[in-house]
Specification:
The chain is α+β, with helices and mostly antiparallel strands and 200 residues long. Helices cover 30% and strands 18% of the residues. The N terminus is likely disordered.
Length: 200
């Protein structure tokens, strides 16, 4: 009986992203390798010397819909990438759970939403999500050109699913990117993410 309980506890720990050490803002961003929708390998190391944004997404989440249906996420992506930032959208939903998509479905979503990421990573084994302790969709991270994690948290300061709340909100991602671009420490480096739980 004790062995069974110990085994169950071990399985539960593995199943929860919180069982893994969370990345630390101000330290090196966790290295990762993933596959994009074309089956090409994507390594964080490929973008050494560039600012990188990681965006966790799930198209069925109302908080994600808030930012995509309003065009806010696309505008944020476009502003960032026009400035040379690499934007990686990550889908960590497990097969059979909400938000899971095939490569073809992911590409259709990008096209239908007129999204502007540099690439879309299908985190099918959830290794990247767990490495970053991604909790919600959206959950946002900014990595500076030196490879240091300089922002982690929410996209903005209005933790609701109402698109009307976007107006007047502080976009933490754009603020962090502006600080990085201008050689300043990120003023707001960590916030509480909000949204739907990542479907591990």
């Amino acid at each position: 009986m004790l062995k069974r309980l110990a085994f169950a506890a071990a399985i539960s720990a593995f199943a929860l992203p919180s069982a893994f050490a969370a990345p630390v803002v101000g330290e090196a961003a966790p290295a990762f390798t993933g596959k994009d929708t074309k089956g090409e390998t994507v390594n964080l190391a490929d973008y050494a010397g560039k600012t990188v944004v990681l965006e966790w997404t799930n198209d069925g989440c109302p908080y994600v819909k808030k930012h995509y249906n309003s065009g806010n996420m696309q505008k944020t992506q476009e502003t960032a990438t026009a400035d040379g930032v690499v934007w990686l959208t990550v889908i960590s939903s497990a097969e059979g759970k909400q938000g899971y998509v095939t490569p073809e479905q992911a590409d259709k979503l990008t096209a239908d939403r007129a999204a502007k990421p540099t690439d879309v990573i299908l985190d099918t084994d959830q290794a990247i999500g767990r490495a970053y302790d991604a909790k919600t969709t959206p959950h946002m991270y900014v990595i500076d050109p030196a490879g240091k994690l300089v922002y982690a948290g929410a996209i903005d300061d209005k933790p609701t699913a109402d698109p009307k709340d976007i107006e007047g909100a502080t976009n933490y991602v754009l603020a962090a990117l502006d600080d990085v671009k201008n050689g300043r420490p990120v003023a707001t480096a960590e916030t509480e993410p909000y949204g739907c739980a990542v479907k591990y």
